[in-house]
Amino acid sequence: MSEPVGRRALWVWRHPRPQGAAGRCIGAGTDLPLHWRRAKRLARRIQAHARRHRLPHQVQTSPLTRCAEVGRWLRRWGWQHRLDAGLLEIDFGAWDGQTWDHIGQAAVEAWVADFLGHAPAGGESLQQLLHRVAAWQPGACCVVSHGGWMLARRWLQEHGERRPSALEWPAAPAYGEVWRLA
Which of 2, 8, 47, 137 is the most buried (most CB within 10 A)? Predict the structure, then answer.
């Protein structure tokens, strides 16, 4: 007998590398294209993982193309696929889509100075992201999301309500990397 979804491990994959992300601030406001082969490759890895771990063929993804395309491949193969805005990357406001050089060092330093509370360029603060991630309820144990979302989920799992500083915030997972989260 399988355990209820809420008690099972949550397997979260970071989306594949999208086209046009290099050197740019990419968040919820930038929906970059994804080469179909990268989406299909990650979908195959998820399918094999689910088979190996006897997971239900259900996947939740962020609605952004770089995640949703993976779910669409799985749906073609008989999976249930649900888009969930709670899985979106952090919203960087007016920074979204800009090059880091264009944003400038002074703006980044202002964010680092108040890492938890500062909402870059009118976007979402890290505190808001952490609240959104904490409130998110899984409907499937297989998820395709974003690096920032995964970092926030892991931070909450390992540190609870402790305030993070920019210096201790970990590096994002690699594209296509999977993490087992609570």
Answer: 47
What is the chain's pLDDT, residue by residue, as a tens digit (182 residues)? 344 444 568 999 999 999 999 999 999 999 999 999 999 999 999 999 999 999 999 999 999 999 999 999 999 999 999 999 999 999 999 999 999 999 999 999 999 999 999 999 999 999 999 999 999 999 999 999 999 999 999 999 999 989 999 999 999 999 999 999 98
One-letter amino acid of 43: A
For domain 8-158+172-181, the question of CATH label 3.40.50.1240 is answered with: yes
pTM: 0.93
* DSSP state letters, the chain: -PPPGGGSPEEEEEPPPPTT-TTB--STT------HHHHHHHHHHHHHHHHHHT--SEEEE-SSHHHHHHHHHHHHTT-EEEE-GGGPPP--GGGTT-BHHHH-HHHHHHHHHTTTT--GGGS--HHHHHHHHHH---SSSEEEE-HHHHHHHHHHHHHTTPPP-TTTPPPPPPTT-EEEE-
